[in-house]
Design brief:
- By secondary structure, this protein is α+β, with helices and mostly antiparallel strands.
- The chain contains 15 helices and 16 strands.
- It has three domains: 150 residues, 2-Layer Sandwich (Methyltransferase, Cobalt-precorrin-4 Transmethylase, Domain 2); 67 residues, no CATH class; 171 residues, no CATH class.
- The strands form five sheets. It has a five-stranded antiparallel beta sheet with strand order 9-10-11-14-15, with no helix packed on it. A four-stranded mixed beta sheet has the order 1-2-5-4.
- A hairpin with a 4-residue loop joins strand 10 and strand 11.
- Helix 11 crosses helix 12.
- The chain starts with a helix and ends with a helix.
């Protein structure tokens, strides 16, 4: 959760020191108490913010005037006691696509406040899919207007649809440029569902068993020709006329994916074409991916000339300017805080027993990694990289969604600590 943003929000009113000075608006909503029975109202606000620019729902502030009381013990316990996965399941049950959010306790002048930070949706609009009497309607699109969560008006819906169309057009234009550079007659298109490669002169079929084994390569050559290859396939590939085509594999790279981006960083693999990796990142809807490992080998103005999803590109540009993933431990007196402290102490002692923590406690380990001073991570790079690799290999595939999100944030922080300085040195 962005500490600087919360500090900007929690400022006293100049007219009444008991009130918060930041007013409700497009990105901020205040609630005096928290109760699970009001979750439909909360998720409505979350969806409305996700469809706009994101924002914060803050529990513990009275409505008109906005007196800063903090949550009472009963409300605080209710806010904390349910696992984040329960929250995530409730949100997914009522809205699609998924809403990205974080939950935390923030302490200000002795009072504790519940915070829900909602991220702007990467794919819009977020639509309600479950009816709750007088609260939620199936098919409704809620939008955050000034201090109000209501069904979207035409102008804002039109803007969202235009932006989504622009993203798709941008992706198409990038593909067209790639085809143009290769030459239409030299280009084939792979349908990853059917396994068919469409070409100008003939087509190939790849069996379903081999689809997951496709490898992109930079060097090597076809057995039958002496041309430059763009693709090698592990196994036998047949034409539609059943004529076999043999290939040899030179230096190869796995087809790009979010997991590939993570793996390449974690295992410190040599990247032959950093530009292609960054192009993929800038067009991916997943924002929490390592970037500086790839940027450090590219010109400082590279991002300016790449077409990508506006949200992903803006996120990377923000990461270049400021640190989004470093976390500071605040003594909230909660169970979560104590677990993070325990994990931090184990990390500083390089205690490998952290690999055996329970699934529900992994998120605290990942948060603790983000609290470790950058100098310590640099001095103990091998330990932290090996720790992340082991977790990735043993646990990543079975992680819950909220846990895997925290894991990727920890990866982004370590990537920033180890590689951002090399990139920034060019600027």
């Amino acid at each position: 959760m962005n500490e600087k943003r919360l500090q900007r929000i929690f400022q006293k009113s100049t007219q009444n020191s008991g009130c918060i000075g930041t007013q409700e608006g497009y990105t901020i909503e205040y609630k005096q108490n928290f109760g699970w029975g009001s979750m439909p109202e909360y998720v409505r606000a979350m969806a409305a913010m996700a469809n706009n620019k994101g924002g914060h729902i803050i529990f513990g502030i009275k409505d008109k005037p906005h007196v800063m009381t903090g949550l009472n013990d009963k409300s605080l316990k209710k806010f904390e006691e349910r696992d984040l996965s329960v929250w995530s399941n409730f949100v997914r049950e009522h809205f699609e696509p998924a809403i990205e959010f974080e939950r935390d306790i923030y302490e200000f002048e002795g009072n504790k406040y519940g915070i829900i930070e909602v991220h702007e949706a990467t794919t819009k609009p977020v639509i309600c899919k479950k009816y709750v009497e007088e609260k939620l309607k199936i098919g409704a699109i809620y939008y955050r207007y000034k201090a109000e969560n209501t069904e979207i008006q035409y102008a804002e819906l039109r803007s969202i649809l235009d932006e989504e169309t622009k993203k798709i057009n941008s992706l198409w234009m990038d593909k067209i440029r790639q085809i143009s550079m290769a030459g239409v007659s030299n280009t084939m298109i792979l349908n990853t569902s059917s396994g068919k490669l469409y070409g100008e002169k003939n087509s190939l079929y790849i069996s379903s068993e081999l689809l997951n084994q496709i490898r992109f390569v930079d060097k090597g050559k076809f057995v039958e020709t002496d041309g430059e290859p763009v693709l090698s396939i592990v196994g036998e590939v047949k034409k539609t006329q059943e004529t076999p085509i043999s290939v040899t594999i030179g230096e190869k790279e796995v087809a790009l994916s979010n997991n590939r981006i993570i793996e390449c960083f974690l295992f410190q693999e040599k990247v032959s074409n950093s530009a292609e990796y960054m192009k993929f990142i800038l067009n991916s809807q997943a924002k929490n991916l390592p970037v500086f490992y790839y940027l450090k080998n590219l010109p400082r103005d590279y991002i300016e000339h790449v077409v990508g999803y506006s949200g992903s590109k803006e996120h990377v540009e923000t990461r270049i300017k400021e640190s989004l993933y470093q976390e500071k431990l605040r003594d909230t007196g909660t169970i979560a805080y104590r677990k993070k402290i325990k994990m931090q102490e184990a990390l500083l002692a390089q205690d490998n027993s952290v690999l055996a923590v329970a699934e529900d406690d992994l998120k605290y380990l990942f948060c603790a990694i983000r609290t470790v001073d950058a100098r310590i991570i640099i001095q103990n790079k091998d330990y932290f990289m090996l720790l992340l690799r082991n977790i990735y290999e043993d646990k990543y595939q079975n992680m819950k969604q909220n846990t895997s999100a925290e894991f990727k944030k920890a990866i982004c922080y370590v990537d920033e600590v180890l590689n951002k300085q090399n990139y920034s040195a060019k600027i």
